[in-house]
Fold:
Amino acid sequence: MAERFFVDHPIAGDRAVLAGPEAHHLIHVMRAKAGTRVVLFDGSGAEFAAEVCDVRRSEVGLAVLDRTLVDRELPLRLVLAVALPKGDRQKWLIEKAVELGVSQVVPLETAHSVAQPVEQALQRLRRTVIEASKQCGRNRLMELSRPRTWEELIGSTADIPVRLLAHPGGQGDSSLIRNPQSSSVSSVAVAIGPEGGFSSDELSIALEAGWQQVVLGARILRVETAAIFLVASVVQGL
Structure:
């Protein structure tokens, strides 16, 4: 399979230009030269067979040979709201969310949050989205949204029919994770709090707004483990 590269602007016509980190990788890691074949994607859902025409200092010009629509997305929109863990665990979580087909990740600001996502960190994580998409074959980029408070999330997801949250040590129905409704709805939202869990006020707000609580087993899971376990369980139930 040819190497995949992301073009950060819509590809139109028979020419494309790679710049930035993608061009650097193609020039300095892949040692591309005229005639090298690659696959491009621009987030539109299509793949483009392309051939290197010219290699400049920081850009690569390519001839677009073919365009094919390739859909590797889930049959519904899956939103993961999560209080991000610290350090490299953030990158791992985002990478696996992309691989599993999550449509959007919403970083949460909660009462017990330990990591406050700043713009610089979010930019690095958006690069992780691109790298993970290249690896797993997704042609649409997972959205990594701005951080939201718990109240903002509750308000912005009111129209999503299936909304599940996990809380350590709480009550809940594990069967809801594979909710049979998920095969007939257009969107599902899942939420994971920080390692200290949601506050009692946050939990009450969510339940009053129609969120359903689920349990992920008898053991206490790290944030990233709980998030990917919940997402994978929902995906498996589709």
About this structure: The chain has two domains: 4-69, 77-236.
